[in-house]
Amino acid sequence: MREIGLTILLLTLSNVFMTFAWYAHLKELGSKPWLIAALVSWGIAFFEYLLQVPANRIGYGVLSLGQLKILQEVITLSVFVPFAVLYMKEPLKLDYLWAGLCLLGAVYFMFRGELVPR
Prior knowledge:
- It is a single chain.
- By secondary structure, the protein is mainly alpha-helical.
- The protein has four helices and no strands.
- The chain has helices at 2-28, 34-60, 65-87, 94-111.
């Protein structure tokens, strides 16, 4: 279980960097050429990968690949919604809740069997 907790922590931190790399340039670098935005995003994404790669290696020891992917998607939405609302000033919509409920269904199907099917 320690591995799962560490995987969740590292993936969550990784997703913070990923979300900023993918979307913050829309707010912060909107007037800059796309190449500048891409280079800045790649620089941020470097730190994402420093966390994401070890997270996936640790998680793959105790989770199936499908379980690891669904976990990643749940974390992604959990990080993205506060980012969209608080940082990008997007309105909070019920659609985020419905998307989250759909992901809970995916979690159920991916985790309903044994934890490590290998």
